[in-house]
Amino acid sequence: MSRSAFVLQEMGLSPLWRPRGEPGIQDSPVNLATPPAEAAAVATVATPPRAAALASTAPAAEPTTVEVNEAPLQAKLPDVLPIQDWDSLHAHVAACQRCELARTRHNVVVGRGNQQARLLIIGEAPGEQEDRQGLPFVGKAGQLLENMLAAAGIHSEQDVYICNVVKCRPPGNRNPAPAEIASCASYLQWQIDSVKPDLIVALGRFAAHTLLNSQAPISTLRKQLHHVQGHPLLVTFHPAYLLRSPGEKAKAWQDWHQVKCQLAG
Ligand code: SF4
User: Fold this and answer.
1) How confident is the model at residue 158 (pLDDT cuts 50, 70, 90)?
2) How far apart are CA 114 and CA 34, in angstroms?
3) Separation of 103 CA from ligand 1 center, angstroms?
4) Which of 93, 104, 173 best tests ligand 1's pocket when mutated (most atoms within 8 Å of CB)?
5) Helix count (H) and strand count (E) of the chain?
6) pLDDT tens digits, 112-150
7) In 3-state terms, what secondary structure has residue 194?
8) Ligand 1 pocket, 169 CB below 6 A?
9) All domains of the chain, ordered by start, with CATH?
10) Lower CB count within 10 Å: N or C terminus of the chain?
11) How far apart are CA 212 and CA 234, in angstroms?
12) Is it the case that residue 261 has pLDDT exceeding 70?
């Protein structure tokens, strides 16, 4: 069994990618040259030339009209932080007392990965393990994210930079408050501007709502190609949600396949 097939089996996705009687899919559980219909839908509205590249690899599927949103990051900041480089960012965040979360954190969690990565993944907030280790996505949810990236052929260290909307853990894993998001937004804006990713992936409803200034259901948002600070953005489920709702993993795999296709464009 190949590594991709093993990972997909571990994710419980093998049946989805082993349909019987479909030429071109039977031979490989991860047929990256044949994106699902949703990738074709994005290709119909994305900005050329990426859209053309996507369309050239898409199967003959009925195109679906999807919406392109150009949304600013929700929070507006009154100040401009004097952040010159990544070391400066880490120093500012480590000393930050701009919101209540500074009082209960053990460590700040700035981000990890390639600071020039083509793919920027943004989650909600650090959890318990992340707060302990000072790194994002290191618990069970992080392992599932690693598995999904590996299955999509995306190297988590080379191809990705991962961070969260807020850099300190909310007590009890509650959602960050609007004032906390606003206080922390300048750090995320700086990270987006500095990484200059070809694609942003928002993990989960909270990150998507914050980045897109939308309250639409994730079932709607994940079917659209959005833009934030001039960068294309796709939405998928948070891996912590997938651990609680394994029946949604097949949809998540469709999203990651779409991510792979978007990056290949
Ligand atoms: S969450 Fe952000 S704004 Fe609040 S203390 Fe941590 S780094 Fe500062």
Assistant:
1) very high
2) 28
3) 10
4) 93
5) 11, 7
6) 999 999 999 999 999 999 999 999 999 899 999 999 999
7) helix
8) no
9) 3-57 (no CATH), 68-264 (3.40.470.10)
10) N
11) 10
12) yes
Rounded CA separation 27/199 (Å): 29
Average pLDDT over residues 33-48: 34
Cα 97 to averaged position of ligand 1 atoms, centre (Å): 6
First vs last C-alpha separation in the chain? 29
Distance 177 CA to ligand 1 centre (A): 11
User: Model's pTM, two decimal places?
Assistant: 0.77
Mean pLDDT of the 181-201 span: 96
Nearest CA to ligand 1 atom 5: 102
DSSP assignments along 87-155, one per residue = HHHHHHHHT--SSGGGGT-SS----EE-TT-SEEEEES---HHHHHHTSSS-SHHHHHHHHHHHHTT--
Distance of CA 84 to the CA centre of its chain: 25
- Residue among 158, 190, 164, 188 nearest 176 (CA): 164
Strand 68-71 versus strand 199-203 pairing type: unpaired
CA of 83 to the centre of ligand 1 (A): 15
- Are 226 and 119 spatial neighbours (Cβ–Cβ below 8 Å)? no
Nearest CA to ligand 1 atom 4: 99
Structure tokens at 18: 């082993």
d(CA 231, CA 224): 14
Indicate if ligand 1 lies below 6 Å from the C-beta of 191: no
